[in-house]
Amino acid sequence: MGILLIRTVVSLALSLGIAARAYKHKSLNRSGAILGFVVMAIHIAAGYRFGALILVFFFTSSKLTKLGQEKKMTIDEDFKEGGQRNWVQVLANSGIATVLVVILATITRGEDKCLDTKNSALMTGLIGGVVGHYACCNGDTWSSEIGMLSKGQPRLITTFKPVKKGTNGAVTIEGLLAAAAAGLVIGLAYTFVGLFTTECASDVAWKQLLVIPIAAVAGLCGSVIDSLLGATLQFSGYCSLRKKVVSKKAPTVKKISGVDILDNNGVNAVSILLTTLLTSAFCLYIF
């Protein structure tokens, strides 16, 4: 069997096992597990490095979501047991990258390539976009989950005024540091797996290590962009009846910030798109 066929078989078996386990442990609901199986299989079949990125994002974010979930239930209006995600959330966090890895697999026929604009600017831009995509996703999740549990006072990113935990667009020092660390982990995963799957020319081999700091910056930037969008284009208000921050207007809700244009999935999708484009452009410049 060819390399691509072998990887496809591996991807189907591995993705099915992971999706079934995630459904059992309530990390994904039924629709989320079905779509999660599809996108994981596509990523792994397209390249082991891409599979590593989505798996690192999924496993680390799932673990952090479940951490301190009793406290999070009192803060986050939409928090579900186990941090259960549905198909919309899976799509928002993987849709753009899935399109990019399909394009890459078509161009390279499933062969891992190095970041090198001299060889292929298109390929370099696409790979950089995938890295930026998951650095943003991981950074936003780590920032939110750790920020909710931190003892620091959240501040609205647009005004720096103290706000209640759970307010869209609120940031903490711990959360921002977590976002950078989350991006760093994505960069490390990409680079480590690449050591076994790619052979780069000597003049560009050392440059591949730059993915690590680039991903760390992308994780932080993605979280900041998400917070800016959340503070301005997503409504936040305090409900005197439920005693928590909510994202829908009601007679018992006093506005904190933002306007009701985007929901949480919309904010995630836009921040991911912007971070993907910025990281792609930066990789074209660096490599």
TrEMBL record:
Domain of life per record: Eukaryota
InterPro entries linked to this entry: DUF92_TMEM19
Pfam families: DUF92 (PF01940)
Membrane spanning residue stretches: 35-59, 90-108, 176-197, 209-233, 267-286
Keyword tags: Membrane, Transmembrane, Transmembrane helix
Membrane-related topology note: Multi-pass membrane protein
Protein's cellular compartments: Membrane
ATP-binding recorded as keyword: no
One GO location term (cellular component): membrane
Main location per the UniProt record: membrane
Recorded family membership: Belongs to the TMEM19 family.
Name the record gives this protein: Transmembrane protein 19
